[in-house]
Amino acid sequence: MGDKITFGDSLVVTVFSMTVVFVGLIILAVIISLLKNISVDKKIKGTEIEVPIVPKQQAKEEKVQPSVDDNELVAVIAAAIAASMGVKVPDINIKAIRRLPQNTPAWAQMGKQERIFGKL
Q1: Which of 13, 36, 56, 98 has its CA 20 to 30 A from that of 44?
Q2: Does pLDDT of 5 surpass 80?
Q3: How many domains does the chain have?
Q4: Alpha carbons 71 and 61: distance in angstroms, whole number
């Protein structure tokens, strides 16, 4: 127990430890980039996506809504899907569009919107 560590020895240990950590991080970054490149090569072309549409239950009193061109709505949805998948619009085939019911309470929905808009 009589051995003392000098300042130079502690400096060598520190530099060696930092070098090992940074080399490990660089190797990890290279592995992640290789995995990313491998998964990107397997692009899906001509995929068929079914977007569900649930029809609204009609109330006894129908509200007058301005006429909306359904073709424009389908075009916007198809463009959004194609953009998120990274493919061209003709490569996807939309069979049906159904609206999903909102099961989230109003307070939870407002919390989500506040978090989203707070990050902008």
Answers
A1: 98
A2: yes
A3: 2
A4: 26
